[in-house]
Amino acid sequence: MEKKYIQAIDAGWEMPKCAYPYNGEILYRNGKTDKTKDELLASPDWKLPELMVMNDGTPVTADKWAQRREEILYTVREYGFGHTPAAPEKLDAEIVYSSVSKTYAGTVKSYAGKAIVERINLSFDAPYGRFSFPIQFIRPIYEEKPPVIIHLAFNPSLRELAPTADVETRYAPIEEIIDNGFAYVHMCYNDIIRDNFAKTYPEALGENGMGKVFYKPEGRAKNEWGKIGMWAWAGSRIVDYLMTRDDIDKDCISVAGHSRLGKTALWCGAQDERIFAALVNCSGWGGAGLTVGLDESKLKTLVAEGYMQWWCDGLADYQDHFRDIPYDAHFMVAAIAPRYVNLLAADGDMSRYQLADFMSAAAASPAFEVQGLKGFESDPQIPCPTVVYNEGHIGYALRPGSHHFSRWDWNRHMEFVLKHRGNK
Q: What domains are defined for the chain?
């Protein structure tokens, strides 16, 4: 069917300079260096846990990648995000509202008549009870089987939004997404477990959202999952549901998130092999960027401020020697091989994140290359805005500006998916 609505996917602003004036002087926001990515990776200052060596010391080959991937995931679970429970035996889905009935002069009203909107409740049994959470599913009506982007979103909470209301969020240009032929799924992370930073275990985890049906009253084990693991697991339950639909492209389901939810999208994509691409936006410390390139005091600060709720408690053991953590971000990026991952950074984001993401892409590339795939294809120099590298299975883009999930970011992510969709 001919697409009736389309916009230029590369529309957006260009600011090629990575500097800005402040009090009469020029400040540079990116971690500038005259070294190439290969020179940095060979430096003792960027020494990383070995990616392409099996736990028994043998080199990773193409036929051993599946086994090495399981070793990688176990390491990240044991020392990072905690161990993920199995999927529920049964997932129930109830469509509580469809905009098919919301018409004007015989035409569906949602998003200017371009989409069908459904509010769906997903429910399942867990170890200590039953849990349900809502999603909003928006499908363009001029695409027979559109690719899907699951947005792990900050707001709005669907529990607090009328089922008949269209989602509005500053973190996603939803109409532009459907104009480019994508179906869009909105999941608010607080509808899974609230990001409340409470001081006590019951308030923070044990009696909070999905925590009620998974955590024991007396506390969690040191390697038991935290909130990022729960948000990522919920993303996979959405994939479970999407696999029951015949009106989407089940082979092209991507997951997107920004900041802490960028970490979540990366972890969801690393674990769930049904996900076509992880679209990771400004994911920061513990996300796509190598920790070795960041501030040595960062983990200690996160522990002091209560952020271990996102990870497993065992990660806190490394706060005084975080370089001894037995994995780094390139493990998670590599675990997505042979699928796709796109990393987007901003030069005005927190210190050196954009460099850490770029280096992570370079360090993870061998996991794809050993399978005969294009890994991370880029210029060797450390980038300045605006660059877009999207030829390989690992994409990277850097823009000027601040910590945000902007329209430009979404367009780069959609561009990446559409570029590689035909290669699935």
A: 19-88+136-421 (3.40.50.1820)
